[in-house]
């Protein structure tokens, strides 16, 4: 296998990782701060993709669609929180799993009702369809570079939000002792709603950007949801930094595994068998990594300081 | 023993299940046989999950793995010409128990959300392993024959297949009942309510929990082998995480930590699915929010709604 291919696959891995980070950031915040297992996070990602699809058709511009989609996803998240999820914060994980599992069915059926059962496609905008050479000699799609850039921007934004602003301070305080923060006169419910909305907007943004490269359809959220859970468990629940590191780790393992495992298998299996079994075995790889991480560090790589 | 509403409910449930074949045949609706077989199979899966989830507090989000193991045990042995049920079922039970022992040994080191996720991770591994087994159909699944029991039991006879499944359900209920009320079951329940205290009075709770995990795995494996027998088809979808979620929903719907709750949960879940499918093509838009309402308003599951005079504080 050539060196260039490895570099390209690693870049793809980082791109996929950054993309996973957008989804897992909100999930880990909601989980770490509200202590809430939110299976609907994948549905919010799916809604983002459908919003982007619908708005692109409506406005004719992908960029405009993405800009409009973010507030739409934000509002969807906030409505969901207000109507159904906020009463679940005080319940145990099992109740949360059951209720949000039901909501997944609801969202899947909702998009089927509104947009029909068939998968949707829309194209990468003209201005991002070219290639650039980030590393000399390796042309790399501009759109994927854009995804990496957006992901890193979001990481920086979240860092400042959590570490440098008043709202971030309240978030950290709320995570360590929500009763005390409430007693000091902070409107903790409003704070939770805001955090949930931000998480929903980020998941929606990921969905919108995924639209042109992955197919948009019902059930697209579930695979991502499971991967995002893997990410936050590896990274340590509630830790944004852990989510970023684990996202890139999972992204690289998934992408590089997908291209190298079939080639390795060809060493001792026939080509056909290796090509069909390879991708599935590569998918197993992430879970092996996760089980190994949890075996040695049961609290994940970066345990959040608060419980 | 006084006839409390719960005892009456149990009796009605079992009588209904027992008379399905003659009634369905009289009505000329053999489809109901298949439906109730599915209900009983998922009831077995839910009962086994409830052993560890409801009584032991071990929230396994990967219970569908054992459905797959049971299914593939039947399919793979049949593929190589070994069609005997005397092989299929023992292999399923021992195989599921051993794999559950392995998964449990690692998973039980963690707790809370990490336990939920690591059990899910192992099931995902098995799922993708199933997808990668091209020899046994891979993604598309594989057709299989029904288990044969010489001339003793002919599973190709619809009634026999039905009562065979029913027999397994009764056996699982019996095992579950005996287990929960035994000393072993007391330790498991004690470890759920206060593990530190159980350890302090000298119980090696890890080993007890692991044993319960393996028993539950073996029981769910049987459900998988039965499912393979009624559908004559096995796919990796048996092990999809959505399946694990559904089994969990059945347990919670019926009432966790109860003997008959999971049976009730499985029945209501699958019957509701059937009814809603009749009403509208977009049945899930009603089905999903029902879970939310259930969680918000019926916290002890359906079984908890049936009054029981003997058990006021339960």
Characterization of this structure:
The complex is a heterodimer of chains A (307) and B (314). Chain A has 307 residues and is mainly alpha-helical. Chain A has helices at 3-34, 41-59, 62-85, 93-115, 142-164, 166-176, 178-183, 188-210, 220-235, 240-265, 271-296, and strands at residues 131-135, 138-141. Chain A is built from 11 helices and 2 strands. A two-stranded antiparallel ribbon of chain A has the order 1-2. In chain A, strand 1 and strand 2 form a beta hairpin. In chain A, helix 3 (62-85) runs antiparallel to helix 8 and helix 10 packs antiparallel against helix 11 (271-296). The relative contact order of chain A is 0.19. The model of chain A has no long low-confidence stretch (mean pLDDT 85). The two termini of chain B are 18 Å apart. Chain B has a two-stranded antiparallel sheet with strand order 1-2.
Which architecture of chain B would the CATH scheme give at its second level? Answer: Orthogonal Bundle
Q: What do we call the CATH topology of chain A? A: ABC transporter involved in vitamin B12 uptake, BtuC
Strand tally of chain A is: 2
Side by side, the strands of the main sheet of chain B go: 1-2
Secondary-structure element sequence of chain B?
HHHHHEHHHHEHHHH
Taking strands numbered 1, 2, ... along the chain, how are they ordered across the largest sheet of chain A? 1-2
Total separate domains of chain A: 1
- Let me know the number of strands of chain B: 2
Describe this structure in a few short sentences.
The complex is a heterodimer of chains A (307) and B (314). Helices cover 75% and strands 3% of the residues of chain A.
Structural topology:
The complex is a heterodimer of chains A (307) and B (314).
Chain A: H1 3-34, H2 41-59, H3 62-85, H4 93-115, E1 131-135, E2 138-141, H5 142-164, H6 166-176, H7 178-183, H8 188-210, H9 220-235, H10 240-265, H11 271-296
Antiparallel strand pairs in A: 1-2
Chain B: H1 5-27, H2 31-53, H3 64-79, H4 85-107, H5 113-132, E1 142-143, H6 158-180, H7 183-193, H8 195-200, H9 205-231, E2 233-234, H10 241-254, H11 261-279, H12 284-297, H13 301-305
Antiparallel strand pairs in B: 1-2
């Amino acid at each position: 296998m050539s060196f260039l291919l490895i570099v390209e696959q690693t870049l793809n891995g980082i791109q996929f990782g950054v993309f996973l980070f957008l989804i897992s950031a909100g999930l880990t915040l909601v989980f770490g701060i509200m202590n809430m297992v939110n299976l609907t996070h994948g549905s919010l990602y799916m809604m983002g993709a459908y919003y982007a699809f619908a708005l692109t058709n409506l406005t004719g511009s992908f960029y405009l669609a993405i800009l409009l989609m973010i507030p739409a996803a934000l509002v969807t998240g906030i409505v969901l929180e207000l109507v159904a999820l906020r009463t679940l914060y005080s319940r145990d994980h099992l109740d949360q799993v059951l209720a949000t599992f039901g909501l997944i069915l609801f969202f899947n059926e909702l998009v089927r009702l509104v947009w029909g059962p068939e998968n949707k496609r829309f194209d990468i905008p003209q201005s991002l369809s070219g290639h650039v050479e980030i590393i000399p000699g390796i042309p790399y799609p501009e759109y994927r570079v854009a995804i990496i850039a957006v992901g890193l921007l979001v990481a920086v934004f979240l860092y400042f939000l959590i570490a440098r602003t008043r709202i971030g301070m309240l978030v950290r305080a709320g995570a360590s002792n929500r009763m005390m923060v409430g007693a000091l006169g902070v409107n903790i419910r409003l704070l939770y709603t805001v955090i949930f909305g931000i998480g929903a907007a980020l998941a929606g943004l990921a969905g919108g950007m995924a639209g042109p490269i992955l197919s948009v359809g019902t059930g697209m959220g579930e695979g991502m949801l499971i991967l995002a859970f893997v990410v936050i468990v590896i990274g340590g629940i509630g830790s944004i930094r852990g989510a970023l590191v684990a996202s890139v780790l999972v992204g690289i393992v998934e992408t590089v595994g997908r291209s190298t495992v079939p080639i390795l298998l060809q060493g001792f299996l026939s080509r056909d068998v290796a090509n069909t079994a390879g991708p599935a075995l590569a998918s197993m790889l992430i879970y092996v990594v996760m089980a190994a991480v949890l075996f040695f560090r049961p609290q994940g790589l970066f345990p959040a300081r608060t419980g | 023993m006084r006839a409390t509403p719960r005892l009456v409910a149990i009796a009605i449930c079992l009588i209904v299940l027992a008379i399905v074949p003659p009634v369905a045949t009289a009505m000329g609706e053999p489809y109901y046989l298949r439906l109730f077989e599915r209900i009983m199979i998922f009831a077995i899966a839910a009962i086994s999950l409830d052993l560890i989830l409801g009584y032991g507090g071990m929230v396994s989000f990967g219970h569908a793995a054992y459905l797959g193991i049971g299914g593939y045990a039947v399919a793979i042995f049949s593929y190589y010409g070994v069609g005997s049920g005397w092989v299929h079922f023992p292999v399923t039970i021992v195989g599921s128990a051993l794999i559950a022992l392995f998964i449990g040994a690692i998973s039980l080191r963690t707790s809370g959300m990490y336990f939920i996720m690591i059990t899910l991770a192992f099931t995902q591994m098995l799922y993708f392993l199933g997808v990668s087994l091209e020899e046994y159909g891979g993604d598309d699944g594989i057709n299989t024959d029904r288990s044969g029991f010489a001339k003793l039991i002919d599973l190709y006879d619809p009634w026999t297949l039905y009562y065979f499944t029913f027999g397994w359900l009764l056996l699982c209920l019996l095992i579950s009942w005996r287990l929960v009320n035994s000393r072993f079951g007391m330790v498991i329940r004690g470890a759920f309510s206060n593990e530190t205290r159980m350890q302090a009075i000298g119980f090696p709770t890890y080993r007890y929990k692991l044993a319960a995990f393996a028993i539950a795995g073996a029981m769910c494996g049987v459900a998988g082998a039965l499912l393979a027998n009624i559908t004559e088809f096995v796919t990796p979808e048996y092990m999809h995480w959505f399946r694990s979620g559904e089994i969990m929903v059945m347990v919670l719907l019926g009432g966790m930590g109860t003997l008959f709750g999971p049976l009730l949960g499985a029945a209501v879940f699958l019957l509701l699915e059937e009814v809603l499918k009749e009403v509208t093509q977009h049945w899930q838009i009603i089905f999903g929010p029902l879970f939310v309402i259930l969680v918000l308003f019926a916290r002890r599951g359906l079984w908890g709604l049936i009054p029981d005079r003997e058990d006021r504080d339960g």
